[in-house]
Amino acid sequence: MPNKPVSSAKFNEVVNSPKRSSRRVRRVILSLLAVILLGVIIFLLVPSPIEPTKWITPAGPSFKEPGPWQQNDKLSSPQLVTDAPKSPEFITFDKEGKLYTGDSDGKIYKVGFDADGNPQEAQVFADTKGTPNGLKFDANGNLIVTDVKRGLLSINPSGSIEVLADQVDGKPIYLANELDIAQDGSIYFSDTSNYGRVTFKEMAENKPHGRLLKYDPMTKQTTVLLEGLYFANGVALSADEDFVLVAESYHYQLTRYWLKGSKKGTTDIFAKNLAGFPDNITRDEQGHFWVGIFTTRISFVDQMHRSPWLAGTMAKVPELLLSGASAPAKHGLVAELSPQGELVESWHDPEGSLYGVTTAVNHNGYLYIGTAPGGSEGVHRLLLPK
Question: Which residues form the Strictosidine synthase conserved region domain (predicted)?
């Protein structure tokens, strides 16, 4: 049977069909581009939630040049002490040598050691129902805790919790972070930010919102020693208790507040231009200060501080989309400082098996390492050279 001839109209329809499809695709693409462009214009026109302050950040120390910041592998191949706490922000020890650390879910763990120094299984000591960060035992055997959500707490040996302070001068303690305890029982602790939480907006804004506080156990009163700190973090007293240090994470420095002598009540910079964001500070028997560096310097952040427009624009981006920007670099770092604030040496893990370091504690021949959410998990330790 012969093929039925195709009409001229049908032929044109078949030939022109791909052209019409191509035009439809182009229209869709152009429409999408118009929507995206409109979204960008609206995003740029919306006012920023912050008014950033310009800061020309100093160039950070180089890990490649010879000197105490030179990269090494001293933090590599650590021994796992316990993985019960995923984010052991701070580490302390009781008089019997048991290790205590908190986790972001509110639990505080204790870890004993056998006769050979091997860690035993972790046990839950208490649950603050908050977020315990700083921990230190007082002279009476109570565990004093700075809890991000609940303030300054005291936990007796049986695990009973008492709130010591959650206000100062009639205002909330917004974000109790770290602490140290003087021989007279006075508790020095940081109130990180009146934002009440860790937020990228505060970093972008580059304005000081933190405080250093003091709690007097005799009067049960809390006072403000210092205001205007750039993300107040770790706290540590000197061996003679003539000054107290507080880390200003967002300005890469440690600030010293004098407690005694002719400089009493004044401040100065103890250590500046650190190679990253300083977190917690501990002091060893030699009077040296060990500083956990949560993350090494982030070039984009330094660039953002130089451009208030860029900082203000970034503050408009939803926090969920910026989670990667605040994640720690996978480079473990700890700084050891002399009693005068000079860098003695740095400890690195450039491979990033141990990173997001918040705490380094020199105890009984080992360096114990704690971390925060976003970093490696569990408590680790490394044998110190004799």
Answer: 177-261
* Maximum Cα–Cα distance across the chain: 115
Is 19 a domain residue? no
**Per-residue model confidence as pLDDT tens digits over 322-374:** 766 667 899 999 999 999 999 999 999 999 999 999 999 999 999 999 999 99
136 assigned to some structural domain: yes
Taken in order 40, 41, 46, 52, the sign of the CA dihedral is positive
User: Could you list the residue range(s) of the whole structural domain that residue 156 is in?
Assistant: 79-383
C-alpha dist (Å) from residue 119 to 44, 98, 141, 253, 371: 55, 9, 22, 34, 18
Q: Which residue carries 């049908």 as its tokens?
A: 10
Would you state the structure tokens that stand for residue 137, as one six-digit string?
């035992």
CB neighbourhood size of 346 (10 A): 24
Cβ contact 232:176 at 8 Å:
no
Residues in CB range of 353: below 8 A, 6 or more apart: 76, 77, 78, 332, 376
Q: Give the burial string for 89-120 (b: 16+ CB within 10 Å, else e).
A: bbbbbeeeeebbbbbbebbbbbbebeeeeebe
Structure tokens of 79?
A: 């021994």
C-alpha span between 211 and 185 (Å, rounded): 20
Q: What is the CATH number of the domain that holds 283?
A: 2.120.10.30
Based on the structure, what is the number of domains in the chain? 1
